[in-house]
Design a protein that fits this description.
Elements: H1 2-17, H2 28-40, E1 44-55, H3 62-67, E2 74-82, E3 88-97, E4 103-117, E5 123-134, E6 144-155, E7 158-165, E8 174-182
Antiparallel strand pairs: 1-2, 1-8, 2-3, 3-4, 4-5, 5-6, 6-7, 7-8
Length: about 180
Amino acid sequence: MKPIISATVLLASLSFNVIADDAADNGVWDRIKSNVQKTWDSPTRDLYVPLNTWHARFMYDKEKTDQYNERPWGIGYGVSRFDEDGDWHSIYAMEFQDSHNEIEPIVGYGYQKNWYFGESNDWRLGLGFTAAVTARHDYGYIPIPLPLPLFSVEYKKFALQNTYIPGTYNNGNVLFTWARWQF
């Protein structure tokens, strides 16, 4: 459990120590720091509820998938914002039951480019990434970096978000879906 706490403290301390310079964009690193700081300071809060972990059947033996948990009970919390272009940024932490019914935490930063639909712009599709750290029981809870894709369908303050965890045969290849509610 100590590696999980260490990873969480590291991410939190990086977030707290980021100094954003809004006056000038001196490169990618300054832009990253500015986005993290603006997101951290956002008043918008998010509730995350894991819904499903679908193991791609074409990449697994049936015996394996019959044993796996695909209902990842858990909960998460985050801060988020929409930037001037309507794109979404988030700093979040979530905990859920993994495929083996063991607790899996994840903390990270998410970004999605959004496309808005309808006259009121209430509907949107998002495509982006998350840069996160997780820890799993089967790896002794050693922090594992996770750069993963994000995609979503959203309506006003509600979103169904997804990521795909790539892998090899009988490992990985999981579509993870959760609900996000902004308040």
